[in-house]
Amino acid sequence: MTSPMPAPPFVPGAVLRSPVGLGRATAVLLGLVIATDLFACFADLAERNVAGDLADGVTGAGVLHRADHADALYRVAGLTQAGALVATAVVYLCWLWRVRVNAEVFDQSAHSMRRGWTIGAWFCPVVNLWFPRRIVLEAWDASVPWGARIRHAPVNAWWTLWIISLLAGRFASMSWRHAGTPGLLRSAAGQMLFSDAVDVAAAILAIVVVVHLTRMQHRKALAGQVPSPVSG
């Protein structure tokens, strides 16, 4: 259970509360996502290697056994990734809601979208490619320590890799479903390996964003109210 932090002037519908607990939980679960992605990379490599052998004409009981093992690894990797993603998404959205409300208390004028978009933006087609980034950036700007210069590099880097991973994963999944030959299967496994590797990098940067934004809000709340931060 979290306790309220010292609050600036009252904002209707917004209460300043510590994001530290949710931030830590989100970072830990993002670490779990990284672990499952690394396992998926291992499964992708196994699938790619055995598909390459089959495409090159290698036959026999040994390669068939490896193919069965690679398929099993691939299925398990997909299940663990899905489970980690769902668990992380739930906690992450709770954390994001908390930091968004806190950001409204810090600076209500910094937000161009209604609070409901904090959750809804992730589930609306097309706009989910840029609305969540805007929401995080606005919460970031409102949470920057008083008088500090605003820098968006961590958020922009995280979001860029997240979009690349998302699009690459969808393309790889489509290629996998239509892979009717060992050669096509090898290509699809390589595409999935790229997607999973980029997702590892995106998750690492997501941890950086979560930890940094959580710390900024905590420190700003403890510092009390002074003039707005400097843009630049």
TrEMBL record:
Q: Name one Pfam family in it.
A: DUF4328
Q: What is this protein called?
A: DUF4328 domain-containing protein
> Which residues span the membrane?
20-42, 72-95, 115-132, 153-172, 192-213
Native organism is Streptomyces fodineus
Q: Does the keyword Hydrolase apply?
A: no
The entry's keywords:
Membrane, Transmembrane, Transmembrane helix
Q: Does the keyword Cell membrane apply?
A: no
User: What InterPro entries does its record include?
Assistant: DUF4328
Q: Specify the superkingdom.
A: Bacteria
Residue ranges of the DUF4328 domain? 66-214
